[in-house]
Design brief:
mainly alpha; 2 strands; 73% helix; 527 residues
């Protein structure tokens, strides 16, 4: 009997999967009605011509927070409290954030406080739940891990589908308190389910403070002076710090959140390049395994950087695409129950339900039909090939959306159903990037850095949304706007084609880098 036949599914997995399904319903339930709520309620006091731009800014700033706080959650779990305790406590913070949204529907400060608490709670637990799934496996049953990660992503979209379909309806019919309150109840249920499995989980304790940690090795590499050798890597890192400080002068133009995120990107980018250039200087001071581990992490981070354009396109389906759908013809659905007749107009935000529905269909289709078919025909879709193709498909989706926008700008009345095609392309790209990326990030991370690496995977989403904020800020300039008008396109259509080109170029660079990447197997050993 081989290892694959002996492998058994951990019995605690259903608790984590059920928790994730409820939590994702709560998150997407509030996220997918956020833009419509801001436009039709919270931001009504603003001039109409500024309202859409501000709604996009608030939305993407919130998403930046959601995917920035994984850094904090991963650090707390890896260094102090462990994954289980950190997830449980931050889930309670998460519940408080939902309560603020339901209570302060007419108070900007209270509502924004709720968004901050949700970003902290949701972001803090995001990398930990995923890596907590990985902790339940070892070398004896790791063959089942990808199936669970696929199932994990499937249940995420199961919750997202019903949230996307129902919450816009509840917002319109019952008001913001009910629409934001229901996701809060689901988050409370998610927390209770997670707590119920506490005695069944495999708990990997926090790593003790390590003198040969990633940051210590990087610090040694950058600061060690070798006589007769240039300190190019050190000066590269210093340049990153200086540029990060200089980015603070952009706060009046792009806002404090975008400026801080840009500063973080500059420090990480230039610091990482500098460490790579001088990493061998740490050898002898730190064990070879630690130095090789840092080089492995830096290679992983390059993959994550190249994925960021995908997220800049993907997350705009809840902002830019919803705003486009508002300008399209929406069908009225009528039906009868017994002697009563009912009708309601399909909401623009409900189109987002297509995304999770297609995910639930595409994951089994890919695993059962597409991947085996390609393999029989000699095409092996490795993890990196899947991710590169996913980025390219997102670019194709935005080309389609761009042409639709040109038609709308030209006075053509388009049915909202035209968005089905770009949703299908974008979702296919998402399945190739996200389900693969979750397992890739976990398997490639050194054992002592699982939580932090998953945090960096989520940070790629923050950086993707940073590109959106910077692009939106750039078109506020009168000079840029006039140049765009000279092309004969509206600003919206121009940005759509810009982001499409951004993704296709990133896919090309990703393919080049993937050719030289060596895959690792960093699951823990079986006991």
């Amino acid at each position: 009997m081989d290892g694959a036949e002996k492998a058994q599914m951990p019995k605690q997995i259903p608790y984590i999967i059920a928790n994730e399904g409820c939590e994702r319903f709560s998150f997407y339930g509030m996220r997918n009605i956020l833009t419509p709520f801001l436009i039709t309620s919270l931001l009504l006091s603003m001039p109409e011509e500024l309202r859409k731009g501000m709604a996009k800014e608030v939305f993407h700033t919130f998403v930046i927070g959601v995917y920035f706080f994984p850094l904090l959650g991963g650090w707390l779990a890896d260094r102090f409290f462990g994954k289980y305790n950190t997830v449980l406590w931050l889930s309670l913070v998460y519940c408080c954030g939902h309560a603020c949204l339901a209570i302060f529907e007419n108070n900007r400060n209270g509502f924004y406080t709720g968004l901050f608490l949700i970003a902290l709670g949701s972001g803090g637990i995001k990398p930990l739940v995923t890596s907590f799934v990985g902790d339940q496996f070892d070398q004896s049953n790791r063959s089942l891990a990808q199936k669970v990660f696929d199932g994990f992503y499937w249940i995420i979209n199961f919750g997202s589908f019903f949230a996307s379909l129902l919450m816009p309806f509840f917002l319109k019919e019952f008001g913001a308190s009910i629409a934001f309150g229901i996701p809060g109840v689901l988050m409370l249920i998610a927390t209770i389910i997670f707590w119920s499995g506490r005695t069944k989980y495999i708990h990997v304790p926090p790593a003790p403070r390590d003198p040969h940690s990633f940051l210590n090795v990087v610090r040694t590499a950058l600061t060690t002076n070798v006589p007769g050798q240039a300190r190019s890597g050190y000066f590269m890192a210093v340049a990153g710090v200086l540029l990060a400080i200089g980015s603070m002068f952009l706060i009046p133009k792009v806002g404090i959140v975008a400026a801080l995120c840009l500063a973080l990107v500059l420090v990480l980018g230039f610091g990482g390049m500098g460490a790579w250039m001088q990493l061998e200087r740490a050898r002898g001071i730190h064990p070879d395994a630690a130095v090789d581990g840092v080089r492995s992490v830096l290679r992983i981070l390059v993959v994550f950087v190249l994925v960021t354009p995908f997220w800049s396109l993907f997350d705009q389906k809840a902002s830019t695409w919803v705003l486009q759908a508002n300008d399209m013809i929406k069908p009225t659905i009528s039906f009868s129950i017994f002697s009563s007749s009912f009708s309601f107009e399909f909401q623009a935000a409900q189109m987002q339900a297509l995304n999770p529905l297609l995910v639930m269909l595409l994951i089994p289709f890919n695993n059962i039909v597409l991947y085996p078919l390609l393999k029989r025909n000699g095409v092996e879709l490795t993890a990196l090939r899947r991710m590169g193709a996913g980025i390219a498909f997102s670019g194709l989706a935005w080309i389609v959306v761009g042409f639709m926008q040109l038609a709308i700008d030209g006075g053509n009345a388009l049915e909202i159903t035209w968005q089905i095609l770009p949703y299908a392309l974008l979702t296919f790209g998402e399945v190739l990037v996200s389900t693969t990326g979750l397992e890739f990030a976990y398997s490639q991370a050194p054992l002592a850095m699982k939580g932090v690496i998953m945090s960096f995977w989520n940070l790629s989403v923050t950086i993707g949304n940073l590109w959106v904020l910077l692009a939106n800020s750039s078109v506020k300039s009168a000079a840029v706007t006039e140049q765009i008008k000279a092309t004969g396109m509206s600003v919206t259509a121009f940005q759509m084609f810009f982001f499409a080109g951004f993704a296709l170029f990133a896919a090309f660079l990703f393919a080049l880098y993937a050719r030289g990447y060596t895959m690792q197997n960093n699951y823990r050993q079986a006991k």
